[in-house]
Structure formats: C-alpha cells, structure tokens
Amino acid sequence: MIHIMKERKTYRSQLRQEHTERTRDLIMEGLIRTMANGAVTWSIPDVAREAGVSVPTVYRYFRTKQDLVQGLGDYVVRKAGLAAMKPPQSPQELVSLVRQMYISSEGLSDAFRMASVSELASEVRKESIPLRLRMTEEALAPVLSLFDEQDRVRLVRMVLLLTSSAMIRAFKEYLDLSGTEAAETVGWAILTLAYAGSSNEKTKQQRSEAEQ
C-alpha cells in the first residue's frame, strides 16, 4: 500500500513538473513574440496575451520583468541543447560549444530570429557582455599567455564576435551557409586565432637568437 502511494506521489510530481515546464515555455515564447513585434516598451500583460495565459500566471512564474528577461537566457540555452554542456575551458571545448550553437540555430523559429534583432534584445545583450567576455577569457586561458596584453584583448573580442548571434545571422544572410558549414568556418577561425600566438613566440625567439 505504501509503495503504491509513493508511486502515485511520484507520478503527480512528474505531471506537476511537466506542467510547470510547459507553462514557462509558453511564457518564454510569448516574450519572444512580443520582442519580435518590435516592442520597446512592453508589459507583463503584453507577454501574457502573446503566450495565451493569464497575467497572474505570468507573475506566478516571474515576479518582475527583469526576472522574465533573465529567464529568456536559460530558455534559449535549453532549447539549443546547451544546458548540459559545461563552460568551455579550452579553445577546443569552445569550438565544440560554438558548433552546437550554430547547428541548433537552424531549428529556431522565425519569431526568435526577429526577436534577436529587436531593441529589447540589444539591451539584453549589453547586460550579458561582461559575463560572455569572462567566459571567453576562461576558454582561451590556455593560450592567452602566448600573446601580449593588447593582443589578448583583441583575441577575446574577436572570438566573442565569432560566437555571437549577429555572426550566426551574418553567415546565413551574406553567405547562405548551413549551420554546419558556418560552424566549421568559425571553428577554423577560432583555432587559427587562438594558436597564432605560438607562431608569434617562435618568430620572436628566432629574431632574438639572430640578434645575439
């Protein structure tokens, strides 16, 4: 009897969790459509209307607009299949992450693509830049010592741009490349830039030996 009661409780918990995830996804899709509509000034009721849920339902999951916007990042990461991936700790791991990003971008909705170029998305990106810079620096840490200070800054900035949603759009709009083709090009570029410092060091050493 106790065993049956535990099974029922587990089943109900699973159903409740699935319902929670579905509702959160509906709200996130509602936010994306609101952004895609070009809204600069928007409200919780706007999102609720697009999501097809009540305003109290949105507030039940997201207490403020800021919470709602922050939740969008987690939603995008999960939809892109990146939630299980650890932060990259080497250029090679970064390339693997970028490959997944570029390939999964092909499955994103038109509304999401429109939302990514909205003014609200631009504001969200600005807030995320410091975190993304730190993540890029950590991924490039094994090779940063091969560069001087100025080139380290340049390298991190360039790699950040190569991993941006704007670059993903550029490969599609300018070159009409598939996600896989674009990922291969970007992976090559990241590794070429990351290990350029090793050849620089060799050149410096050869020059120093020649001068002695």
Record the SSE blueprint.
Elements: H1 2-36, H2 44-51, H3 55-61, H4 65-79, H5 91-104, H6 110-115, H7 119-144, H8 149-162, H9 165-175, H10 179-194, H11 196-211
Helix pairs in contact: 1-2, 1-4, 2-3, 5-7, 5-10, 7-8
Walk me through this protein's architecture.
The protein has 212 residues and is mostly helical. The chain folds into 2 domains: 1-79; 82-212, no CATH class. 79% of the residues lie in helices and 0% in strands. It is built from 11 helices and no strands. Helix 1 (2-36) crosses helix 4 (65-79) and helix 7 packs across helix 8. The longest helix has 35 residues, at 2-36. The protein is elongated, with a radius of gyration of 22 Å.
Number of domains: 2
Number of helices: 11
How would a crystallographer describe the biggest sheet?
none
The outline comes out as elongated
